# Entry
Amino acid sequence: MAYDIDMIKKVYSQMADRVNKARKVVGKPLTLSEKILYSHLWDGDASKGFTRGKDYVDFAPDRIACQDATAQMALLQFMQAGKKNVAVPTTVHCDHLIQAKMGAAIDLATANKTSHEVFDFLESVSNKYGIGFWKPGAGIIHQVVLENYAFPGGMMIGTDSHTVNAGGLGMVAIGVGGADAVDVMAGMAWELKFPKLIGVKLTGKLSGWTAPKDVILKVAGILTVKGGTGAIVEYFGEGARSMSCTGKGTICNMGAEIGATTSTFGYDDSMERYLKATDRADIADAANEIREHLTGDDEVYANPEKYFDEVIEIDLSELKPHLNGPFTPDLATPISEMAKKAKENDWPIKVDWGLIGSCTNSSYEDLTRAASIAKQAVDKKIKTKSDLGINPGSETIRFTAERDGLLQIFEDLNATIFTNACGPCIGQWDRSDRKGDERNTIVHSFNRNFSKRADGNPNTHAFVGSPEMVAAIAISGRLDFDPTRDKLLNEDGIEVMLDEPAGIELPPKGFDVKDPGYLAPSKDGNAIVIKVAKDSERLQLLEPFEPWDGKNLSGVKLLIKAFGKCTTDHISMAGPWLRYRGHLDNISNNMLIGAINAYNKKSNFVKNQITGEYDAVPAVQRAYKAAGIPTIVVGDHNYGEGSSREHAAMEPRFLGVKVVLVKSFARIHETNLKKQGMLGITFANEKDYDLILEDDTFNFVDLESFAPDKPLSIEVVHADGSKDMIKANHTYNESQIEWFKKGSALNLIKMHSVV
Ligand code: MIC
Ligand code: SF4
# Structure
């Protein structure tokens, strides 16, 4: 039986009526995305149509999911909100804080020792406030959510950018910062700018080496890392229906890599099969009764150009397998062209590691497809050249895969089976084969491959592919290996080819698990006292941020002008820093240490305008803070791309940065900045980025009349005394301006909170 089935039945009981009313006010047939959005309005029934890309709308999500690395800050904030219980079903998943090194058993025991303070904190806060708790080793948040909580037509938010994975089961599931989640936990509405809609029509059918992963690798190549910003991507067509539910999850998951608000698919037989296989026939039965409302209207899919803002068509029968990378997930290369491109770009050809797993690609089907390749290495006597590491997505998948002999196949190739957790995907990887910054190549089935992400080495060239392609490349040990064409020399000196992968969608004997790793919360957690040690280096209770003094900011010094890509990994690095995710002061020591200073092209080396000396970014910022000098960070396009981690906004706020001025923002990061009371603004004229010099001082001219839709004027004073007047745009609405005025959104909640 499904968790929270009553909540799901309630959503379904209102769906038909709400969809019909929405269709009336919008005045045309509806996409699935619109059906879900309009049936989750905070105000209930739709009374008017919203303008996509413009109107801010209040929504009422059905549930929330948090993972350990972001839940700490989210729950520390929630604890300040003065509520007894979370207002909607919420879960916490411990998956990011487990380092991959020796293999699951040892690594998990080590994590339970080194991070017990954090796990205990999360467990007791969950217990107190009515939150379901998934213990370390239970699995990666998005696989566990897909297996247990996602339901067609539902809306959820999660404090992780890959929350969007649940679109594979027909949800509108959106990644947010912790402060957004706190609003909903506290029983308030969740605000989102009504998204634009991109339709992706899938025709044909996948075959051979081509996998669902290749659909999104291709889409990423088309739309780039910012092409989906502010939009929901809705997939439809015969190609969509012919794919498994977990394959759809893979596609939706990596929608985060194109900046999309979320991605989704209409309810179909593959979802029904998956629900039944995961012990949720009750949801499938309920969904079947309102099937027509859980997918887009026929007219929409027949004439998508009329209803979507942009339409892309992909013929799955023609689609070729891809590898994307290095350093960015949108650099798409069909495998057949990799040999040429790798040579042209001087990418290291030898592949050190093949890593299979992550929330994107760790389903039962993924493991069977990769195993079908791995098995051939033994059968055809091919010696595997790269190391192989596997992270199963959940304990249910791991237990079932072990029972069905899949893990043994990988172990026969000397693969290490890591914990059911994020592991190398988030830099939780003690990689023993290479130290320092040697140039090398790895391939993985993860979603992100930003510089330093997996192992902290800026010269690790990471490429993203499907699990079966990762297995094939690991066996060959070469980046330029094309299994559709190339032969390998086996141990008998005979040339052999790998056969195409074969997968099994769902375990024929059903899923099984002994201990899924779930702890239900107490019915009444009122008496539970949450303790945080004063001298803890992992956890720190939060102090409210100062409200704005109502005056124009002036004498604002430039802290850093970031050059090129500046993702949340650059702003607040993960890996070893994950240990400080619950301690704002300590984690602030990683603020912007990965960003490249535009003036010297170095990372973590900026000028302190007080002394004229160069130093690490956090040190320079702490010096400005001590001197009471406000500062500004300047950046390029898609600033804050990637993660939902609000630390990337809280650290600058905590250390006294007042403004982030960039060419454009990634959605979640922009909201995170607003929530924490920062001024996140964009150049009205992009070229003004070039005007900004290292010794600049900024004076805001009209911040005192900060208002929606009104650009801000800023005087930029250069070291030689010359001045430029520039304009900055912003997207703050009335209530977001209140967050800025009060110092943070949380300060505002607290003012209105009735315990
Ligand atoms: C990631 O993949 O970058 C993470 C780690 O899962 C983040 C969340 C975090 O920073 O904790 C994400 O994607 O939001
Ligand atoms: Fe974990 Fe990687 Fe997925 Fe982020 S992308 S949730 S780090 S597996």
